[in-house]
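Researcher: Next entry in the queue.
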Amino acid sequence: MYKTRQVYTLVALLLALQGTAQSDSLAIKKHREQQLIKKMIIPTALIVGGSIFSNSKAENNIQNNIRKGIGKGVSTRLDDYFRYGPMTELAIANVIGLKSKNHWFDQTKNLFFIDLASFITVRSLKSFAKRSRPNNKYIFNSFPSGHTTLAFSNATMLYYEYKEHHPVFAYSGYAFATATGALRVLNDRHWVGDVLVGAGIGMLITHLVYKLEPLKNWNPFLNGKQLSFRPIVNRNELMIGVYWRF
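Model: Structure for this entry, 246 residues:
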C-alpha cells in the first residue's frame, strides 16, 4: 500500500512538472510572437506610409523644394558606398572577434537569404509599379529604393547580431542606412516614398529571416574543425590571417 502511494505520488509529480513545462513553453512561444509583432510595427508603418505618400502632392512638393534648396547640379556617389556600410561592419566585427549572437557561418547564411529575398522583392515591385525616376521620367524603376532596402536589411542584421553584447555598435548600421536613404533623395535618384518603402522592406525581411532561421542546423564549421580570422599588423601593412583548427 505504501509503495502504491509512492508510485501515485511520483506519477502526479511528473504530470505536474510536465504541465508546468508545457505552460512555460507556451508562455515563451507567446512572448516571442508578441516580440515579433512589436518588431513588425515600424517596418509595416514605413511600407504603408511610404506607399500612401507615393505619387502624392506633398511628396512632389518635397522633391521640388529639395532641388530648389541644393540645386539641380549637386550629386554625390556616397550613397553607392554607404549602402554597404552595415555589411562591412559585420565583416570587420567577425575579423576582430567581437562576440555576436551567431557563428560567422550562420551569419553568412542569414545574409544570403536576407539579400536574396530583398533583391527578389524589390525587383518584383519595380517591375510592377513602373514608377519613373525623379531625375529621369523615362526610367521606370524608382519604386522602391534598392539601395535603401539593402542598407536597412543589413543594418537590422547587425542589430540582431550585436544588440546583446555591443548595443552601441549594433545600432551604428542604421546611421549608414539612414544616410543612404537621405542621399538617394538628395541626389534626385528616388522619391521620398521609394526610400520609406525600401527601408520598411529591408527591416521586415530581416525580422522574418531571423524568426524562421532557414537551415538553422547546417554549419560544417562547428563539428571539430574551426575556421577563424585574425588581423596581422606589421609595421607597414595590415593582413588577415586565416586559421583552421583540427
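Model: The helical segments are 2-53, 57-70, 78-82, 85-96, 104-129, 146-162, 167-186, 192-212.
Researcher: Noted, moving on.
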